[in-house]
Prior knowledge:
Number of helices: 17
Helix content: 40-55%
Largest sheet: 6 strands, mixed, barrel
Amino acid sequence: MYQALLTRRYLFSKIMPLFSAIAVALCTAMVLVTWSVMGGFLNQFIASGRSLIGDVAIAWPHGGLPYYQDLLVKLRDDDAVEAATPTIESLAMISLPSGQRKAVELIGIDPEGFNKVTGFFDTLYWKPLDQPLPSDHERRDIRLDPELRDDLAAAHAAGMAFKRTGEDSTEEVDAIVIGAMLAGANQMTRGRFLDPAFERMWNESVTIGVVPFSTRNVAVDFKYRRFPVANEFRAGMYQADASWALIPIGVLQQMLGMQESREIDPAWRPGRILLSADGTATPEPPRVIGTSPAKITHILVRAKDGITPEELEARCEALFEEFIAEHPSLHLPDSWRRAIYTWDKKPGVANFIGAVKKETALVLVLFGIISLVAVMLVLAIFWAMVSEKTKDVGVLRAIGASRGGIAWLWLRYGLTIGIVGAIAGGILSFIVVRNINPIHEWIGESLGIVVWDPSVYYFSEIPNKVDPTRAAIVIGVGILSSVIGALIPALRAAWLDPVKALRFE
């Protein structure tokens, strides 16, 4: 009973122990904010893969995969697969209306199939909005303008169909959809919407140039074509928004020479002259010996609900082996399994994720060491309080309090301070993390400092969610650190000689 009474008395009558609670709160908040932002970045990066490649990608970087329709049938009929779609990925040069030329990743897609796998239609930027975004307090987003509603609706439809009226005709032609940040001058206002002063790219046209390669990986030509811009997309990952361009897959197949074509006899040579019976000389036509099937470079697959990406990956490997067995003319490279991957195992991405995990662990360890300041502060303050309350300890021991009871008094005091400080730190970190983007915007507007650069950190917004499990771990460690700091002073108080304690001045 006396422990609870004295704990409340010491807690509200002394100012110094409150500094211990503040130290615990600040250390808890510091660690939890860091873990939430860095861990949230990693989780957001891994989750973003589904909006880019679906759950699993099957790549064939060996001149293109023929007979891919057979593999698509197998995938779409499988119980683990929700949707599958073919794509072609190629490096290209794009010439923008401003005259700027940039290297882009050009992707040929089937719009409907690509949407089923990645939810692409939801990323189309230019579409009418009825309500402003949460950050748009001034309603600056031009998608809210009622005068542009019809134009925006037309742009949204054009983006889904990849069709738009040509520059020199009223007929619809194949169009391109580019990343919202590809134009370079366009910057996201508050990380969420394009500045209203910037040009709407759906009214413009761009020129795309690609280099087709032969089966021996030799550049054979340079193809370019002009496309009207149907819409822009915003996937949420800066690298995609700033360097991706999408066109219909059939168009890219033609530009790269990957469409279905006649197969010419390798022994035929142009220029040979044939003489007919009447002596007429005519050039020998190409000797067609077959048909070369159309090719693609990737198949993107989405799992059904309840199927994990890892389970789908294993199923895709089995179906791919069946597909190869049915087409013996296809050469299966020794490293083919590397070409079937989930987003977190994609070449280049896996190394990046591993590096971020190591950096997160390192930062948490460093902040954990810094947080030992709270432990030492609790120890120093409690040591001083035990010295100050030596006579009180002597009185308690004289009236029958046990050594364990005295130790528990101070440990209980440290536990109370830890609970108060850790919970306060958790609340503080929750407020900071939930409002970290407005805070960042305020810092940028007031001080001109941009800490979170989307071109460096991939995403235009700072992760702003606090994981409950992580919060529980950090708060628990904060409480434990306060108890550990009170442990040595508690043992000192428990082992004080009561006679000497009563004589203490």
